[in-house]
What does this fold into?
Amino acid sequence: MASPEEYIVAAIEESAELDCYPLYAPEGAELPYAVYQRTATDRTELLSGLHGCPTGTFTVTLYASSYTSVKSLASAAREALDNFNGDEGGLTIQKVAMTDERDGDPVFFDGRDTATFLVEQTYTIRWEE
It folds into this structure.
């Protein structure tokens, strides 16, 4: 079955032209890249006892070697994901909404003597199962 995670990966890899990894990037991953994870899922029960469409909260963190690069990647990801609805890869998405975006603290990865910059984005996605 298609999942919202598959949608996120396809949208980001196509729009921002970078690799997208679940939970964490593998050691030695080349910059730039993105990491995503589902942080919550709401399955509200209806009065009929059935569940409606789930709504998930997802975090996408983009990493790049410069501040201007990561901001450009964040813009591309936002344009690809925010306000989307429709069918994608066998999944019907009712609504994607960005709920937060912020700069993360620069990090220093092993083997790099310069900072890596990041932007963290939070999205809610409502889809049909």
Notes: Residues 67-81 form the longest helix (15 residues). The chain has a mean pLDDT of 92.
